Amino acid sequence: MNIKAFLKKKNIEISARRYGIDALGAMAQGLFCSLLIGTIIRTLGQQLGWAFMTDIGTYAMSVSGPAMAVAIGYALKADPMVLFSLAAVGWAANAEGGAGGPLAVLLIAIISAECGKAVSKETKVDILVTPFVTIFVGVALAKLIAPPIGTGANVFGLVIDRATRLQPFWMGIAVSVLVGIALTLPVSSAAICSVLGLTGIAGGAAVAGCCAQMIGFAVISFRENRWGGLISQGLGTSMLQMPNIVRNPRIWIAPILASAVTGPLATCVFGLEMNGAPINSGMGTCGLCGQIGIWTGWLEPSETAAAKGAVAITPTAFHWLGLILICFVLPAILSLLIHLACRRLGWVKDGDLTLS
């Protein structure tokens, strides 16, 4: 049997889509179902004084590494023995990777999952061989490459953060537009922000861009999709518009230009910082996670944000005004005005934004 036939038999597909879209998107879901939801629960417990709720959130946060790795294995269609073994791999990669834990988990979980799939059900002692290979490869790689991956990701995140502080206008536009576009594309903006440890003022620009995409598409497509579309895009994901974007890319003009305006407003005028968990920077208004991240960052900065010098603050009326304008009001108004101009020019027509 040649290599190509063997890979097909083992369902090992070496492709940008499998690793860059499927695995990355699944990793974001795993991170959401552990670190993000845990952060929300713990914060609510702390604010309400409920120790039991705080403990629940803390336990959920502690298993983010295993949750990400298992989610990646699921996306790679790993066999059960491989999937279960990835929990140990995820824990090791996340712990050894430090600030760059999510990136380390992504790379190492992919490699160990594919190695585990390669040997799965090939021997009569599969119950020993498959978990051994998966865990040995994964944890060995975690010890060898996760620390430098973590250092590299941390440095790159710091570069973005410092550059945004030095050039808040231009970097505010760049971060807002690029992360917003990533949110609508079939990749995971949340995972990207988590991998880069994007917090602080750069995180605020990322939140602005994501909100411009979600609120923007929700508002400009209200004529076609009504309340269902408003909620599914405004609180769900603007990715629902991807088929329509492929058919008519000009429908994307309004949300992108809106993000180019709200990004520098967030950085230069309101100094909006997102100091919660980095994943929140790429969530926008999805479940209001971006806003919850900003709020939790005010009260108790995440470890990633604290390492960059973030401290807890008491939010003022100006902070709340910035949050509301950048995340909700301005994206809606700007996107609608730009969209109406596009319609007047004949670039967008009735039905172009209808969700299937």
Question: What are its keywords?
Answer:
single chain; 356 residues; mainly alpha; 16 helices; 75% helix
Write up this protein.
With about 350 residues, the chain is mainly α. The protein has two domains: about 10-155, no CATH class; about 165-345, no CATH class. It contains 16 helices and no strands. Helix 2 (about 15-50) packs antiparallel against helix 4, helix 5 (about 80-95) packs antiparallel against helix 6 and helix 8 (about 170-185) packs across helix 9 (about 190-195). The longest helix is centred in the middle third of the chain and has 41 residues, at about 125-165. It is globular and about 65 Å long. The mean pLDDT is about 90.
Layout: helices, strands, pairs:
Layout: H1 3-9, H2 16-48, H3 51-62, H4 64-75, H5 80-97, H6 101-119, H7 126-166, H8 168-184, H9 189-196, H10 200-220, H11 222-234, H12 242-247, H13 253-269, H14 289-299, H15 303-307, H16 317-344
Helix pairs in contact: 2-3, 2-4, 2-9, 2-14, 4-5, 4-6, 5-6, 5-7, 6-7, 7-8, 7-10, 8-9, 8-10, 8-13, 10-11, 10-13, 10-16, 13-16
Let me know the average pLDDT. Answer: 90
- Span between termini: 43 Å
Number of E strands? 0
Structural class given helices, strands, pairing? mainly alpha
Instruction: Quickly count the helices.
Output: 16
* Fraction of helical residues: over 70%
**What is the H/E string?**
HHHHHHHHHHHHHHHH
State the domain count.
2
Spans of at least 5 consecutive residues whose pLDDT stays below 50 are none
How does the major sheet shape up?
Answer: none
Report the portion of residues in β strands. under 5%
